[in-house]
Design goal:
This protein is α/β, with parallel strands linked by helices. It folds into two domains: 6-84 and 387-446, Urease, subunit C, domain 1; 86-379, TIM Barrel, CATH 3.20.20. Helix content is 36%, strand content 23%. The protein contains 16 helices and 17 strands. Strands 6, 7, 8, 9, 10, 11, 12, 13 and 14 form a nine-stranded parallel sheet that branches. Strands 1, 2, 3, 4, 5, 15, 16 and 17 form an eight-stranded mixed sheet that branches.
C-alpha cells in the first residue's frame, strides 16, 4: 500500500492558536431574505480564534485595534482568494474506481459497474483504503463536508467514519440498505441490517459534533416493504439521524417504481409513507418529480440534491432548478461519484450552469457558489455553523490560487469584477487551484 505523503496528512494534533489569514479577496454567498447575496471582501483579513471559530472578516484596514497587538499567527496567502469549504451532499465511497465507466443508462450501469465495485468493500483492508482515498481527494478538492453512501457492509461504514474522524472533515454517512434488486452478495436480511445500523448509530452519530449517521436505503427498487417499514421505525427511534436516498433519477427507474410499488400514489410516497421524509432527508437527483411531489418535499423541508455531472454522464435528464425553486424546494449540489465525473466542486458548478443554460436559465457565479456551500449547510440544518465566512461560524475555508493554471492566470488578468474572477475559477478550476484546505480552523491539506 502506498504511504501517504506529509501534505496528505491532516494536522489534527497541532496546537491551535489564534490566526489571521490575509488574502487578495474573500468570496462567499449568504442569504439576504429570499435572495442570495454574493459577498466580496477586498484586501481581506480573516481572524480565527483558537477554537477554530471566525471572529473577524473584513478589510485589513478594518482589523480591530484590540486584535492587532494580540498573539496572532499571521498567515499571508499573498495574491490568493478565499472561499468557504465546499459541501458535497451526495457521493458513494466505494465508487471512486467506477468513475469513467461509460456506455450504459442507470439501471444497467449499476449492474455492470457499481455492484461489483461495492462487493469488494466486504474486505476491511479494501474499505479502509477506499475511505482514505476518498478523504484525501475531498481535501485536495476543498470539500470540508460530505454526505456519503458506504456499501452494505458495517465494516466499511466503520472504516469510513474512522478515517473522517482522523481527517478533520465533517461527515454524514450510512450503511446502504438493500434486500432486493441487486446481486445476492449485496443483499441483507432486514433484521440484521437494522440491528447493525443501531450499533453504528450508537457508536458514531453526533461524535465530535462533526460525524453524523444517515439511514440510507439505496432507492425504492432495492428495498422491500419490510425493509422500508423497519428503516422508518429506526428513524422514529433515532429522529436526529439523517436519511439519504435516490429519487426520480431515470425515467425507466420511475416507471419500474410505479409498477413495483403500485399501491403508492407516486415515487415520493414510497419514502413518505414509511416515515423517511422530513427536514433531514436528502433526495438525490429528483429530475423527474411531479408537481405534487415537489410541493410535498417543500412542505417537509427535505432537500433535493442536484448532481449535474452524473445526470449528463448517464443521460438521465436535465434537472430544472427554476422549477424546484418556484415550488419552494431546497436544492444543493453534489458530485455523485462515481456516476459523476469529477470530485471538483468547480466542475460540478460549471456543469450545473450548463444544465440550466440548456433550459434557458443563466445563473451567476455567486448563485452557484451558494449552491455548493451554504445551500449544503442549510440542507443539513447546520447553516449557523458553516457554509459562509461569517463571524461565529466554523473556519472551514479553501485558499485558491491560479498559479498552477496558466490560462486561468491570464484570464484573471483581464477579469474586471470579482464575480467574473469567480466564474473564471468555476470554468478552469480543478484540484490544481486549491492551495490549502482548512476545516475547523486547522489546515488539513496543503498543495506543495
Amino acid at each position: 500500500m502506498r504511504r501517504m505523503h506529509d501534505y496528505e496528512r491532516p494536522k489534527l494534533n497541532q496546537i491551535l492558536k489564534a490566526t489571521m489569514h490575509l488574502a487578495n479577496e474573500i468570496w462567499y454567498a449568504k442569504k439576504n431574505g429570499a435572495s442570495t447575496e454574493f459577498v466580496v471582501v477586498k484586501s481581506a483579513a480573516m481572524i480565527v480564534d483558537f477554537t477554530g471559530k471566525i471572529i473577524f472578516v473584513g478589510s485589513r484596514s478594518d482589523v480591530p485595534e484590540s486584535t492587532k497587538n494580540a498573539d496572532l499567527q499571521i498567515i499571508d496567502h499573498g495574491d490568493s482568494y478565499i472561499v468557504p469549504g465546499f459541501v458535497d451532499a451526495h457521493l458513494h465511497c466505494p465508487q471512486l474506481d467506477v468513475i469513467g465507466s461509460g456506455g450504459l443508462p442507470l439501471l444497467e450501469w449499476l449492474d455492470r459497474y457499481v455492484f461489483p465495485a461495492e462487493m469488494a468493500f466486504v474486505n476491511q483492508s479494501v474499505a479502509k483504503r477506499g475511505a482514505q482515498r476518498l478523504s484525501r481527494e475531498l481535501r485536495r478538492h476543498g470539500v470540508t463536508t460530505a454526505a456519503v453512501f458506504s456499501s452494505v457492509h458495517s465494516v466499511a461504514v466503520d472504516e469510513l467514519f474512522q478515517e473522517f474522524e482522523n481527517s478533520g472533515l465533517r461527515l454524514i454517512a450510512g450503511k446502504t440498505s438493500m434486500d432486493a434488486g441487486a446481486p445476492d452478495e449485496l443483499l441483507q436480511c432486514v433484521d440484521s441490517d437494522v440491528e447493525e445500523q443501531g450499533k453504528l448509530i450508537a457508536k458514531w452519530h453526533g461524535k465530535n459534533d462533526r460525524l453524523f449517521y444517515a439511514i440510507t436505503p439505496r432507492f425504492a427498487l432495492s428495498c422491500s416493504p419490510k425493509m422500508l417499514r423497519q428503516l422508518g421505525e429506526l428513524k422514529s427511534r433515532a429522529p436526529s439521524c439523517f436519511v439519504q436516498t435516490h429519487i426520480s433519477e431515470n425515467l425507466q427507474e420511475v416507471s419500474d417504481v410505479k409498477s413495483n410499488w403500485s399501491k403508492y400514489k407516486d415515487y415520493l410516497a414510497v419514502y413518505e409513507d414509511h416515515g423517511l421524509l422530513d427536514r433531514r432527508t436528502l433526495l438525490a437527483h429528483g429530475i423527474h418529480l411531479t408537481e405534487s411531489e415537489l410541493s410535498r418535499i417543500a412542505k417537509s423541508g427535505a432537500t433535493v440534491v442536484h448532481c449535474p455531472t452524473s445526470n449528463t454522464f448517464l443521460g438521465s435528464g436535465l434537472f430544472d432548478l427554476r422549477r424546484s425553486e418556484a415550488a419552494g424546494v431546497r436544492v444543493c449540489l453534489a458530485s455523485d461519484i462515481g456516476a459523476g465525473t469529477s470530485l471538483s466542486p468547480w466542475q460540478t458548478m460549471l456543469e450545473s450552469y450548463k444544465v440550466q443554460a440548456l433550459q434557458g436559465a443563466f445563473y451567476s457565479a455567486g448563485e452557484l457558489l451558494y449552491r455548493a456551500t451554504l445551500a449544503g449547510a442549510e440542507a443539513l440544518g447546520m447553516d449557523q455553523n458553516f457554509g459562509s465566512l461569517e463571524v461565529g461560524k466554523s473556519a472551514d475555508f479553501v485558499v485558491i490560487n491560479s498559479n498552477r493554471n496558466l490560462l486561468l492566470s491570464e484570464r484573471l488578468m483581464v477579469a474586471n469584477t470579482p464575480e467574473e474572477r469567480l466564474f473564471a475559477f468555476m470554468t478552469y478550476g480543478d484540484d490544481r487551484v486549491v492551495e490549502a484546505t482548512y476545516a475547523f480552523g486547522r489546515e488539513v491539506y496543503r498543495n506543495h
